[in-house]
Specification:
By secondary structure, this protein is an all-alpha fold. Helix content is 62%, strand content 0%. Helix 2 crosses helix 4, helix 3 crosses helix 4 and helix 4 runs parallel beside helix 6. Keywords: Signal.
Length: 138
Amino acid sequence: MRLPLTLLLLALPQMAFAQSCGVDVPAVEKRIGELELSYDDILSDISCDAPTIPAHVLMCEAEFGPAPELWRMGRLDDIAWVYAVENATGTETDHTNPPRDESFIAARDACTDEACLCDLLIEHTNGSLGGGSPYYEQ
């Protein structure tokens, strides 16, 4: 059976985006689920109301698009950072206003494409979770 060309062309961007970071999405979701048992109240520092920074636009498009992989990677990273800070200091932080890694945020916000965001999110999450990161072996 041959698909009409228009259907195939419509599917291509979604297929490419779904694989843009090349991560094991079920492993990412599993780790989010494990960490959310204690860190479900951590929110992103990115507002998707009217994003203007290119990196925020890309993240927000992923959140509301058909392939939320990039947004979910950001979710994992947000939780992982607070988890790492609490483990390093032995002190629970205010989850409604957690400390942020300003140097990471500056690097993330300088990204203008998905590849840059993927690389930074993977690197930062690995740094926060070490062997507990779903990307650790990548």
